[in-house]
Write a structure and sequence with these properties.
252 residues, 5-stranded mixed β-sheet, elongated
Length: 252
């Protein structure tokens, strides 16, 4: 097997252009230029990534206002997606200490749980694409490859999400026996497989197809259906079910 920025960020509307910031404490700026006041007046979509991060962090670093500090952190981290997904793993960054790292990690987890609530609230998953947004949010920004499962009951309602295997940027070893055990542990009757391609290219590899068919066969022996295998990269996840690539290799 071989996650990118949210495509919606490219169309984010900003009704008020962000001001040109100066090297002065934010409290000395004009009220309409301060990120928090702009947030109240125009909504979160009007703020840049650096402004949003500055509001979340709450303060800057020595000799640097919060927005300048936020820009520096984003640059050092390699972008907002990397920062949010790996806040706890990044090397030391000036102005980004344990407290601020904790705030980011909490913000990301809250967002994930909000997405999870929406997924669980679905009456059922009739189309595996119903789960694509959630799985993409969980996997798209990771630098290493992760293989995960979304476990479903007999009515295709969500039981649980679990990351089963982690690898390097080159791949992750997936053990069918462990996938079967996880399905049985969650009492799943169906499962949606997912993994990310850190390169951003979501096209399935030969290894992806091989492990998919192996898992379809192994889980069928336990009367557990594999509804889909979603591959997460830049853009929309690739669905192997939509491409007709989920066939069993062993006759039922």
């Amino acid at each position: 097997m071989k996650p990118g920025s949210d495509d919606t960020s490219a169309v984010r509307e900003a009704p008020i252009a962000p001001p040109t910031y100066r090297s002065q404490p934010i409290r000395s700026w004009a009220t309409h230029e301060r990120p928090r006041e702009r947030l109240y007046a125009h909504g979160a979509s009007a703020l840049s990534d650096a402004e949003l991060l500055a509001v979340l962090l709450g303060s800057g670093s020595a000799g640097s206002d919060a927005v300048t500090t936020a820009r520096s952190i984003l640059s050092r981290a390699g972008g907002l997606g990397r920062l949010l997904s790996e806040a706890g793993e990044l090397p030391p960054i000036s102005g980004f200490g344990p407290v601020k790292r904790a705030r980011l990690m909490v913000a990301l987890e809250l967002a994930r749980r909000a997405l999870s609530e929406g997924l669980v609230d679905l009456p059922r998953i009739d189309n595996p694409r119903d789960s694509a947004e959630y799985l993409r949010a969980r996997l798209v920004h990771l630098r290493h490859e992760v293989f995960a499962c979304l476990f479903l009951d007999t009515r295709h309602r969500v039981l649980a999400y679990e990351e089963l295997f982690r690898g390097t940027i080159d791949g992750a070893s997936v053990y069918p026996r462990e996938v079967v055990r996880a399905c049985l542990r969650h009492h799943a009757s169906a499962v949606i497989l997912a993994h990310n391609h850190p390169s951003g290219v979501a096209e399935p590899s030969a290894a992806d197809l091989d492990i998919t068919r192996t898992l379809v066969d192994a889980l069928a022996l336990m009367d557990i259906r594999v509804l889909d295998h979603l591959i997460v990269g830049h853009g929309d996840p690739v669905s192997l079910a939509e491409r007709g690539l989920m066939q069993r290799t062993v006759a039922p």
